[in-house]
Design brief:
By secondary structure, chain A is mainly alpha-helical. Chain A is 72% helix and 0% strand. Chain B has 14 helices and no strands. The chains are: A mainly alpha, B mainly alpha.
């Protein structure tokens, strides 16, 4: 073909063709797979998927299950704390790092190391550190503090927060780097101006800098939120959902029903609920982020 | 631009930052130290820090129990293969979005990124069935495809943000000189976007390397990567911490070394889209 002077029409056509493989594969896998899962959530499939409709039975069972309700509550608490703590820790670290510390690059790499570890390794390492017989509790006791108690993973009331420590450890370096990039994008003149006016540093952060960092915050929010919904390997490696139901999560519920309890319909119903919950979060975000802006 | 501060403040900040850094690094350091202890020293009371009989025994035992090189090779093929394949598919798509945007470009991007947020368990079973039907279960090829699909939205999005910074006039000029579309993408756009492509490759290799959910569910003996290797050591009753540490170090070493030598690209890759 002669492409020396492609006209607009040709450009548009080839652009569409270029995007086709990606859109097609994403379509088939994500949309196809999701629709399949939703459809089979209305059946009573047990060991193998069977097309025998039973209406909303699986959903009724799901919402009657105490384990599912506890999972939802756990995810909500975990998500809330992770979101707030990730933001605060990430921002404070970034602000600290923004003050021209020495050996900045090395420090940044060390902070990012936990992110480069898989959740499995993270979970295993922390499960050990928090083990009362070998980890922190043991070390502090051997230093002479006999009554020191710190065994979050083995106490049902606080196990969820114990799991969170590992999650924060893994994620806060990434959040810090993102926020630092945002802080670096802010004009030096603003700091000079606020100094001339005698505004204290913390006030400058709260009232001027933070509102200017909205795009960074949105990216961070999306990243944290998507990792929260998916929390699975971290739990399995650390507590396996226990003690009791104290660290059960929806993703684990789905997984156990699909591969453990051989009750496919129930697993599909639970994952459909998760899907709905994600949509409830994603759609308002999408409207906010893209809806108001002028189209390109 | 960073805030300017006095020298004294700078020293205080540096000390504070490094204290945090040490705290963050401690679990990794402790794991590495423990991997060189004997099982007895690993759980010694009081804990021993540096003065113990350094031994490589744990590594030998782990290597004997499971063939490390095979897992490592699988990890390299799966993480590398899925990333390279993803970038090859994503370059044309990102090109069309960045330089020939249509009314729907933003919608498509958004829709793509939102698939990344869907819980993977939702599509796990259909893909599992598909794999059985196609005989792809426990094959490296199957995992390459799945991980490529999982990370494709991020790859396209990252490349799109890098491509958008390249002025369209340069591509225009290439076309004026008679470059075909293929030449335009291959010889003009790609070389200019090399730093961006490198960051994309690096970040996605790490993501694919650490992907445990899919690799654990879709592999058994043949195609299992390092995530499966380390998971096989995590039995709740077997408290062989020194060996577990050695296995952990073997699983994370490649990625820590890679990360150390490519700090700049890694940070660039991680901050994609955040700074405009």
């Amino acid at each position: 073909m002669s492409a020396s002077r492609p006209n607009r029409l040709f450009r548009n056509k080839s652009a569409k063709i270029a995007a086709i493989p990606m859109i097609l594969t994403a379509m088939v896998v994500f949309v196809g797979g999701t629709i399949w899962t939703v459809a089979y959530s209305f059946t009573n499939s047990k060991l193998l998927p069977r097309w025998k409709l039973v209406g909303l039975d699986q959903y009724e069972r799901l919402w009657d299950s105490r384990r599912w309700l506890v999972s939802i509550e756990n995810l909500f608490l975990y998500g809330l704390f992770m979101l707030v703590l990730s933001f605060v820790i990430g921002f404070v670290l970034a602000a600290l790092m923004d003050q021209k510390i020495r050996f900045e690059n090395t420090f940044r790499t060390i902070m990012l190391y936990p992110f480069a570890l898989s959740f499995i390794v993270t979970g295993l390492v922390w499960q050990w550190i928090l083990n009362p017989d070998f980890g922190v509790q043991h070390i502090v006791r051997s230093l002479g503090f006999e009554n020191f108690t710190f065994d979050p993973l083995y106490t049902a009331d606080i196990a969820l927060y114990g799991v969170m420590i590992a999650g924060l450890w893994q994620g806060s370096g990434l959040i810090m780097v993102l926020m630092l990039a945002g802080l670096r994008g802010i004009d030096q003149e603003i700091w000079k101006a606020s100094r001339v006016d005698g505004i204290p540093a913390w006030k400058t952060y709260v009232f001027i800098i933070i509102p200017m960092m909205k795009p960074v915050f949105i990216t961070t929010l999306v990243l944290i939120a998507s990792s929260i919904v998916k929390v699975y390997d971290l739990i399995v490696a650390q507590t396996g959902g226990g003690p009791g139901l104290s660290t059960e999560m929806p993703a684990k519920y789905v997984y156990d029903y699909l591969f453990g309890a051989q009750n496919l319909g129930q697993g599909f119903a639970a994952s459909t609920m998760m899907l709905l919950a994600v949509l409830v979060v994603v759609i308002p975000w999408a409207m906010l982020e893209f809806g108001g802006k002028k189209r390109v | 631009m960073a805030r300017s501060v006095t020298n004294q403040r700078k020293t205080i900040n540096t000390i504070a930052a490094w204290a945090v850094g040490l705290l963050i690094f401690f679990p990794i350091l402790w794991t590495i130290l423990t991997s060189f202890k004997t099982e007895g020293q690993a759980i010694a009371d009081p804990p021993v820090w540096f003065f113990f009989d350094w031994t490589l025994e744990n590594y030998a035992v782990v290597q004997e129990r499971s063939d490390y090189m095979r897992y490592l090779w699988n990890s390299i093929i799966i993480a590398g293969g899925s990333t390279v394949l993803g970038v090859i598919i994503a370059i044309p798509a990102a090109w069309s979005m960045a330089f020939v945007p249509s009314k729907r470009t933003k919608d498509i991007l958004l829709w793509m990124l939102s698939t990344k947020m869907l819980p993977a368990v939702g599509v796990l079973y259909p893909i599992y069935l598909l794999f059985i039907k196609l005989g792809l279960l426990d094959s490296r090829f199957g995992l390459v495809i799945v991980l490529m699909l999982i990370n494709l939205p991020i790859i396209v999005w990252m490349l799109y943000t890098y491509f958008r910074e390249i002025p369209g006039e340069i591509l225009e000029a290439a076309r004026m000189d008679g470059a075909t579309l293929k030449e335009e993408i291959l010889y003009v756009l790609t070389p200019m976007a090399v730093p961006g492509i490198a960051s994309t490759l690096l970040l996605n290799v790490i993501l694919a390397w650490n992907e445990a959910f899919w690799t654990l569910n879709l592999t058994a003996a043949n195609a299992a990567p390092l995530t499966a290797f380390i998971a096989s050591y995590s039995s709740p009753e077997g408290l062989f911490y020194a060996k577990l540490s050695a296995a952990s170090v073997m699983a994370i070493a490649p990625i820590l070394i890679l990360g150390w030598f490519s700090q700049k690209q890694l940070v660039r890759g991680l901050t994609f889209g955040a700074v405009k």
